[in-house]
Amino acid sequence: MCAENIFPARPNGLKPLYTLGHSILDIEHFTAHLKDHGVELVVDVRSTPQSARMPHFSVPAFEKLLQAEQFDYLFLGEELGGRPDDADAYRPNGLVDYRARRKSYAFQAGLNRLEKELEGRTVVMMCAEEDPLECHRFLMVCPELTQRGIFPSHIRKGSRIETQEAAENRLLADTGFDAVAANTLFPEARTEALEDAYKLQSEKFAFRAKPFVLDAR
Fold first, then answer.
1. DSSP states of 164-215 as a string?
2. pLDDT at site 215
3. Per-residue pLDDT tens for 132-175?
4. What does 8-33 look like in DSSP terms, one character per residue?
5. Mean pLDDT score of the chain, rounded to an integer?
6. What is the SS3 assignment for 114?
7. Dihedral of alpha carbons 39, 41, 42, 43, sign
8. Cα–Cα distances in Å, from 196 out to 32, 46, 105, 200?
9. Residue partners of 119: CB distance under 8 A and separation at least 6
10. Which phi-psi region, left, alpha or beta, contains residue 125 (left: φ > 0; alpha: ψ -120 to 50)?
11. Using CA atoms, how far apart are residues 94 and 113, in angstroms rounded to an integer?
């Protein structure tokens, strides 16, 4: 069933946005997931679009495989990648500071391009990790998207969908804020807890550069 039959027209007029981590999928199952949800454009947000374990996800071969299945490809890893080439995006300990990165011109430009693409076609934001809670696409990019009124759906194993709200609630539960995960009486408490939960999870999964690499940037 086409994604447009599942999701009604959105108030902001944009097409659906999905996220998907390729993990250990073969290209046939990967593209089947895209077809299941009516995806037309794959936006690659890996900083380096290569995979030693899964070479079919390495560019340029990956782009050609997508084109053979009638999918378009767009690389936004420089703007929206989790390993930015910008020393200002890193803390002194080498950890990527997702909040700082979201304020950068390059990141905002990447989001603007992504939003522009959503005006005309259904998009999947693609990275490597299967679980969005372990990936910068959720921890760094999605908070800014939701601020813009864009709520991604996450394609999980078996092509099932996890909504952005469900993923956020799972994050709250995993980081000890499960009491406010579904708090409808005090939504501001959930918002504050979610900000803390994103920060805690980012401490675990954000990329950490070695000091000498930072010195060279």
1. HHHHHHHHHHHTT-GGGTT-SS-HHHHHHHHHHHHHHHHHHHS-B--HHHHH
2. 57
3. 999 999 999 999 999 999 999 999 999 999 999 999 999 999 99
4. PPPTT-PPPEEEEE-TT--HHHHHHH
5. 91
6. helix
7. negative
8. 36, 25, 24, 6
9. 13, 14, 15
10. beta
11. 28
Query: What whole-number distance in Å separates Cα of residue 215 and Cα of residue 156?
Result: 38
Give tens-digit pLDDT for 88-125: 999 999 999 999 999 999 999 999 999 999 999 999 99
Supply 117's token pair.
């693409």
What is the distance between the alpha carbons of residues 143 and 88, in angstroms, rounded to a whole number? 20
- The model's pTM: 0.91
First to last CA, the chain: 47
pLDDT at 216: 54
Calpha distance 16→38 (Å, rounded): 9
Alpha-carbon gap, residue 90 to 205, rounded angstroms: 14
Using a 10 angstrom Cβ sphere, with 0-12 exposed, 13-18 middle and 19 or more buried, the burial of residue 118 is buried
Distance separating alpha carbons of residues 6 and 171, to the nearest angstrom: 25
> How many angstroms separate the CA atoms of 204 and 195, rounded?
15
Q: How far is residue 42's CA from residue 124's CA, in Å, rounded to a whole number?
A: 5
Q: What is residue 81's predicted lDDT score, i.e. its pLDDT?
A: 98
The answer to whether the beta carbons of residues 15 and 122 sit under 8 Å apart is yes
| Distance in angstroms (rounded) separating the CA atoms of residues 29 and 198 | 30
Take residue 160 and report the two structure tokens written for it: 């099932």
- Give the DSSP H or E segment for 83: none
